[in-house]
């Protein structure tokens, strides 16, 4: 009988945890994708604002760990480096031209 209760408890606990994860993902979705206020969503789902902030923070940490590098941001960074190099070359050329003008 004791083993049977443990199995039932495990099944119930697993179901609760599974529904909690679904709720957590829905709360994050409501805020992130739909732009709803944290306090509003927290009240709708019956959780505290603090809990929602924890879920959001945990979700951001997970997203950063699994996020793939954004090719657009990488290209922007590359273009900024190229722009800086060209700006340095232009500054050097201007200095040379000014030097030649002064020497004439």
Automatic annotation (TrEMBL):
Highest taxon of source: Bacteria
Signal peptide: none
Similarity section: Belongs to the transposase 8 family.
MF GO annotations: DNA binding; transposase activity
Protein name in UniProt: Transposase
GO biological process: DNA transposition
Pfam families associated with the record: HTH_Tnp_1 (PF01527)
């Amino acid at each position: 009988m004791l083993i049977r209760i443990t199995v039932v408890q495990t099944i119930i606990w697993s179901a609760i945890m599974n529904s909690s994860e679904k709720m957590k993902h829905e709360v994050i979705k409501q805020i992130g994708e739909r732009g709803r206020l944290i306090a509003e969503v927290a009240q709708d789902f019956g959780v505290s604002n603090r809990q929602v902030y924890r879920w959001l923070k945990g979700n951001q940490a997970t997203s950063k760990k699994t996020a793939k590098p954004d090719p657009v941001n990488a290209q922007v960074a590359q273009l900024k480096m190229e722009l800086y190099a060209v700006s340095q070359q232009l500054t050097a050329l201007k200095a040379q031209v000014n030097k030649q003008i002064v020497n004439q």
